Amino acid sequence: MLRFWGQPKFSREPLEPIGYELFLREYNTGNWEIPTDFSKFTATQITDLLTRTTPEFPQKMKHISINLDIDQFVDPVFLQAFFAIKQQLSGIQLSIELTERTGQLNISPSQLVTAAKRFNDAGFYIILDDVSSGDNQLARVKLLNDFVHEYKFAIQNFRPFESLEDIVPNLTFWRDLAQKNQKLFTIEGVESKQDLLILSHYQADMFQGYALGRPIYLPTQDDPDSVISESTTCY
């Protein structure tokens, strides 16, 4: 069985939940697990699950993002599948997060640009996930800049560190680049009230992290109990 789990995305001002980042989870031997191979799921499986899950969302959770690895991102089948259900996601803004993970295929820069342009032209927001990590380095940001709407900076990728001050130069660089390029900027990995107090000075548009809300099970319309817990922590 396949379901989405969702981590709340919080706006900065006011600090309140506005949507979810969706994560696929697979039910095996009594436990929900992170799949070891995301490539085994077809575009149809993912979009079908999406259409059965979003109607159960609380009214205020309208900003939804879903992760695609680079192999999926450049595959026209995924774009076609998402576009086919776009009108069914009433009132939902669906963003595509291009992950930092290295794909199994040798993807050329021109293939990546073509895919980004197609998603953008089809009306999807594109987010570069975990900038400064994995493959989402400055070169990719520059390559896709015309089609990207948001940068996400993941603090958790730089832990452990003595204090947040250790990553301030990197954080400041990406915040400034987002402002220069007129992109939204999200900081994820907020794990404490102290983190939030410090990070609030960096003018992010959105926050994510365990201090604000952990990923929760998102039922579908056909689940026996289709009530989503709205319990989140808000400082």
Automatic annotation (TrEMBL):
<dbReference type="InterPro" id="IPR001633">
    <property type="entry name" value="EAL_dom"/>
</dbReference>
<dbReference type="InterPro" id="IPR050706">
    <property type="entry name" value="Cyclic-di-GMP_PDE-like"/>
</dbReference>
<feature type="domain" description="EAL">
    <location>
        <begin position="1"/>
        <end position="229"/>
    </location>
</feature>
<dbReference type="Pfam" id="PF00563">
    <property type="entry name" value="EAL"/>
</dbReference>
<dbReference type="GO" id="GO:0071111">
    <property type="term" value="F:cyclic-guanylate-specific phosphodiesterase activity"/>
</dbReference>
<dbReference type="InterPro" id="IPR035919">
    <property type="entry name" value="EAL_sf"/>
</dbReference>
<protein>
    <submittedName>
        <fullName>EAL domain-containing protein</fullName>
    </submittedName>
</protein>
